[in-house]
């Protein structure tokens, strides 16, 4: 069930599943989730966006890299790259919005705990446009 119908490449659902593993690994490796939990909060996947650049053929080894690219008071944003090991090509790029729940402190306080002295990165044009599109979507569904 992890390959397309013609058994040639990884299907789209598998990318999302791998994204979950990458997020959990990042949470553990960075210590971000344990800091959120210490403050009585939790974190959920609020949104994701995937750009498929080139298929990952069946039996092709790959890795997923994850990095924190931005945060605001209630969310932090991760970028994930799916990279084939044979040619080091970025096959897909995913942005994910991690929303904190039940937290009484801003996300910046959590980031400071896990990365002392970290400064918030500049908001990239790509991320700004994605955030704008989500805001437009939210406005569309809000009751008037």
Shape: globular
Overall SS class: alpha+beta
Give the low-pLDDT segments.
none
- Strand percentage lies at 25-35%
Count of alpha/pi helices: 4
Mean pLDDT rating: 92
Q: What is the alpha-carbon Rg in Å?
A: 17 Å
User: Helix coverage percent of residues?
Assistant: 25-40%
Largest sheet: 4 strands, antiparallel
Distance between the termini: 42 Å
Strand order of the largest sheet: 1-4-3-2
Let me know the number of strands: 4
Instruction: List the helices and strands in order.
Output: HHEEEEHH
Report a brief summary of the structure:
The protein is α+β, with helices and mostly antiparallel strands. Helices cover 35% and strands 30% of the residues.
Notes on the structure:
Helix content is 35%, strand content 30%. The protein has helices spanning 12-30, 32-38, 107-114, 125-141; strands at 42-52, 62-71, 75-84, 90-101. A four-stranded antiparallel beta sheet has the order 1-4-3-2. The longest helix is centred in the N-terminal third of the chain and has 19 residues, at 12-30.
